């Protein structure tokens, strides 16, 4: 009988009880999902293997065939950007221990400020436009809006002006990936009690 996956490497082990999961990477390893260390491992595995690593694979720029038609992963910039953008608000919810319901823009902007170190008053205004043009465009319209240009050859991650938003999706993904790895390191540090408490509050809803 196939085990139900809860991430790429973790699966339910209900024959041992409701609170136990197995880890495919270590033979016969069973963990208690009530422990925060297990929750962190599962969250890390989900985000990394099902999302961010998939986006990183698309940056390899290989040419493959899909339904006998050539597909060049160099054309994957929007898909890479959409995966990377999807991380920001969700991760901010874990950091704050609260749902972003009816406050999505503020959560997203806080994440952008942290990841890209942009905390000036002017930056907040431009990041709000980034939320509207990029995040809302991708998730509501299936395409970024008119101010946005993406190009894998830009030598910066993002460039924001009154009239333009320019993004290198590969460098943008790198910044998100770095932020994620740093967050996991911080979560695993038992001294970061507030961060760990907030994570568990959010896990209670989504885990």
Structural overview:
The protein is globular, with a radius of gyration of 19 Å. The strands form 3 sheets. The chain has a 3-stranded antiparallel β-sheet with strand order 1-2-3, with helices on one face. Strands 6-8-7 form a 3-stranded mixed β-sheet. A two-stranded antiparallel sheet has the order 4-5. It has 207 residues and is α+β, with helices and mostly antiparallel strands. The chain has 2 domains: 1-34, no CATH class; 35-206. It has helices at 36-58, 77-96, 104-116, 121-141, 169-188, 193-206, and strands at residues 10-12, 20-23, 30-32, 63-66, 69-72, 148-150, 158-160, 165-167. The mean pLDDT is 90. It is built from 6 helices and 8 strands; from the N terminus they run βββαββαααβββαα. Strand 7 (158-160) and strand 8 (165-167) form a beta hairpin.
Helices and strands in order:
Blueprint: E1 10-12, E2 20-23, E3 30-32, H1 36-58, E4 63-66, E5 69-72, H2 77-96, H3 104-116, H4 121-141, E6 148-150, E7 158-160, E8 165-167, H5 169-188, H6 193-206
Parallel strand pairs: 6-8
Antiparallel strand pairs: 1-2, 2-3, 4-5, 7-8
Helix pairs in contact: 1-2, 1-5, 2-3, 2-4, 2-5, 2-6, 3-4
């Amino acid at each position: 009988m196939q085990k139900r996956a809860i991430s790429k490497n973790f699966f339910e082990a209900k024959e041992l009880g409701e609170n136990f999961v197995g880890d495919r990477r270590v033979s016969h390893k069973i963990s208690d999902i009530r422990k925060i260390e297990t929750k962190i491992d599962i969250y890390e595995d989900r985000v990394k293997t099902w999302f961010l690593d998939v986006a990183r694979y698309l940056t390899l720029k290989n040419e493959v065939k899909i339904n006998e038609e050539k597909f060049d992963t160099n054309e994957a910039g929007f898909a890479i950007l959409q995966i990377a953008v999807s991380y920001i608000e969700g991760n901010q919810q874990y950091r704050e221990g609260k749902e972003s319901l009816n406050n999505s823009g503020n959560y997203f902007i806080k994440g952008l400020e942290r990841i890209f170190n942009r905390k000036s008053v002017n930056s907040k205004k431009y990041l709000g436009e980034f939320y509207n043009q990029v995040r809302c465009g991708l998730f509501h319209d299936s395409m970024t809006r008119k101010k946005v240009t993406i190009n894998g050859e830009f030598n910066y991650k993002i460039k924001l002006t009154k009239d333009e938003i320019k993004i290198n999706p590969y460098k943008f993904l790198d910044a998100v990936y770095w932020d994620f790895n740093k967050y996991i390191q911080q979560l695993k540090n038992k001294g970061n009690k507030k961060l760990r408490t907030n994570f568990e509050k959010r896990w209670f809803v989504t885990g």
